[in-house]
């Protein structure tokens, strides 16, 4: 009877109800606590599915290899090899952990540097903003309160509020009256306009067809270089088009 995990004769044998396999009690308990499955069949397994096997308590005989000095030396050599392999695996894990730790420390240091730089830029921006806010009221107070505009009227002096900002007036009734009069005059002029006789009717526009197309000039595609109005016919446009002829000999 051999344990399915260690491959040795168990001291406290137990049997699984689901798979019927034999295990060492301490090994299967630890495996169930870590994984909750059977190590052989990968089925869900609990300690309720484990049944202890009752055996006679007898003294285990000494193995044949331990009965002689060469056998003992072989056992010691095997134990030494297993110890060296375990030590090598631990050294590899330690080296990997050191590399991960150094990488994490480097990332932490870089993040701290970036955060410190951002804080410094934030403080500088706040200082510049506060300085600009202090300079705005002084520049507003030093401006001319009554400047002369092009139409000969004087600008009303701007009032300054409690926060140091200008309170600019909106459109006054005089401006509203002027805008209303201008709108009425322009509307009357537009109504007096007549349709020019040279304007093409809709049915004539529907019969138009495209004869040629000349886009603007490009380096890879020649086209229109300049445009001008016809000297005698205002409704016509004159275009200068770059046309490149290649003669093949």
TrEMBL record:
**What top-tier enzyme class does this entry carry?**
transferase
Keyword presence, Iron-sulfur: no
Identify the keywords attached in UniProt to this record, alphabetized: DNA damage, DNA repair, mRNA processing, mRNA splicing, Nucleus, Repeat, Spliceosome, Transferase, Ubl conjugation pathway, WD repeat
Q: What is its EC number?
A: 2.3.2.27
| GO CC annotation | Prp19 complex; spliceosomal complex
Looking up SUPFAM superfamilies in the UniProt record yields: RING/U-box (SSF57850)
The listed locations are: Nucleus
Catalyses which reaction(s) = S-ubiquitinyl-[E2 ubiquitin-conjugating enzyme]-L-cysteine + [acceptor protein]-L-lysine = [E2 ubiquitin-conjugating enzyme]-L-cysteine + N(6)-ubiquitinyl-[acceptor protein]-L-lysine
Please give the pathway this protein is involved in.
Protein modification; protein ubiquitination
Q: Name one GO molecular function term.
A: ubiquitin protein ligase activity
Name the protein family. Answer: Belongs to the WD repeat PRP19 family.
State how it assembles: Homotetramer.
Write the protein's name: Pre-mRNA-processing factor 19
Q: What is the lineage of its organism?
A: Eukaryota, Viridiplantae, Streptophyta, Embryophyta, Tracheophyta
